[in-house]
dTDP-4-dehydrorhamnose reductase
Amino acid sequence: MSGTAGEDRTIEIWGGVECTVNRVCDEYHDQLDRNGHADRLDDLERFADLGIRALRYPVLWERTAPDGRASFAWADARLGKLRALGVRPIVGLVHHGSGPRRTSLVDAGFVGGLARFARAVAERYPWVEDYTPVNEPLTTARFSGLYGHWYPHGRDDRTFVRALLTQCRATAAAMRAVREVNPRARLVQTEDLGMTASTPLLAYQAQLENHRRWLSLDLLMGRVDRDHPLYPMLIDCGVPPGELEELVASPCPPDVIGINYYITSERFLDERLDRYPPWSHGGNGEHAYADVEAVRVVAEGVGGHLPRLQEVWERYRRPVAITEAHLGGAREEQLRWLVEAFDAAVAARAAGAEVLAVTVWALLGSFDWDSLVVQRRGHYEPGVFDVRGPAPRPTALAGLVRALARGERFDHPALAPPGWWRRPERLLYPAVSAGGRDAGGGDGAVRADPRAGAERDSDVTGGPDGPPIVIAGATGALGRAFAHLCARRGLPHRLLGRLEMDIADPASVEGALARHAPWAVINTAGYARVDDAETERHRCARENTSGPAVLAAACRERGIRLVTFSSDLVFDGARTTPYLETDPARPLSAYGRSKAVAEQQVLAILPAALVVRTAALFGPWDEAHFVAAALRALREGRPFSAAEDIIVTPTYTPDLVHAVLDLLIDRESGLWHLANRDAVAWAELAARSAALARVDAARLARCPGSALGFVAPRPRYSALGSQRGLLLSSLDDALARYLVECDGG
């Protein structure tokens, strides 16, 4: 880790649990149920072990008093435990919600109802001093009153303004009620504080949105008087002047202003619609324009956390904290984002701003925020913990958080390169300057190279961005996939063929590791012809058993991480439910035996190695796999035969590679089963693929496996489950993405 991260003990580390309870029509989307925290009290011990000083924690109105009568049993157990653990709760009462069913953000009763609930919470927990009665009122008003995503699904300025004023008035009323019980109570007010840039034509719209981004805080501060730039708009939207005057006369200034800054928080508006996809098109009644993430189009890039902290401090001169630091996506990018946020907090404090803390958000990850939580598609973004296993599993972020909390440095090779938002490939559209003018020559287009990581994969090495990952298996589809996605993820790597590193030759391995000095080796090399292995057993054993063992010994000597791959063919097929990592290997074939012995030898030599069992790979960057062969034959009207009695769990190669890289960065070890969810027969896989691709499957011939002329015996059932974590998506989801990728994205 470079820079100042971990070197300033004055910046506290806080944590937060994604706890949104948003209403869509009459359905509630509850993150606490989905991440399992609703039923796991011992999560609080995991959080405390990170060394965090405070925890943004839900005692939500909708959950605690859904029918008017409050039941505090859940909160009693959890707040009491936090108190015993020495972690200060910052209690949230409404988090992107609209209250119980009997009220809403446009209901006059919302204000009094939340105030009464807040008083009940304060009376129940008089020792609690920090409150966020309403999280991100401006953002919630936009999503509920302007864009129509959440209840009450308004799509007009009047509903937006009413929802915003209701939340701000409710915040003030709630804090008055709390302070009647506990005069020391502090308001920690959170808000997303992104900003908007535009072309010159749309400067007026950008100015409006940049005034609007402060509106919730200005209202609470009592600043929205007749001189405020948005006062006329509020009056035009039907707000009685007396309502605004009340907030001016009796303000509720936050004791701490919490900024929630995301990579999508900064926006760019452009009337040149042809440059952008249809989903980004909108308008204001006067001009049609695209609204896209600034990071994808502005040549100078995004400002990041530092300018947001500085401008909040300069505007209000109140203590500031980053109250949500979170990035979805690859693990190394999550690490880089948190380090950048912390470094920004340190820099802002050094420049004179009273920055109190950085909050590691979504400790347990979040569900379906890629669709703004309007659908239940099961899209999960891990956080400090990954909840897809039997218990929350700490990710690499946990080590970083502990180091930051202790004021220590955190070293990880994946931190050396810049985040994707600082790399050229972030640009998806013709680049423009921050002032809206085209950047570059000609038509102004500055685009990322769509081939990045393809032709040049084998030339990417270590250097200024840190030591590389060595990938063994340059001629194989899996090795090429790792190189492709390492390049996309900004992970320095070196893809090696046999001439550069023969994995079964100790001298060759030593020479390659000495030349490239990697921090990790990913072994995708090996003998893959299952039937030929029955007559080429010595060659199969050399590549699949001896090679991984040689790598394990060399990596042990040099302190290098190792990943190697095994197969579902280590099992005999006697089960009828998915195999787990602890099930004994009983291979039927020479190929299966070579993999089973390799597993044992590698883990005996190097217990820290990561050994991944997988099966039936299919991917967009090669055609030598079952799904591609089936679709090719059926499209051409040729017959295609597939076994209807051999059950497998197919695996989408990009999903596998991403999961393995995340586990490698997390420093996971031992056996892992990684396959897309759904056990299917080969014939069913062909049929599903054809149906999703809209290809006529009339010439698909379903037959027993014995009719296909296999030389090596196959298990009739080799589906892979996991007791460590189901990290990959459903098969249908993977097949759909595969077909999109094959069609050009």
User: Anything to note?
Assistant: The first helix runs from residue 31 to 34. The two ends are 34 Å apart (CA to CA). The chain has two domains: 12-189+314-411, 457-742.
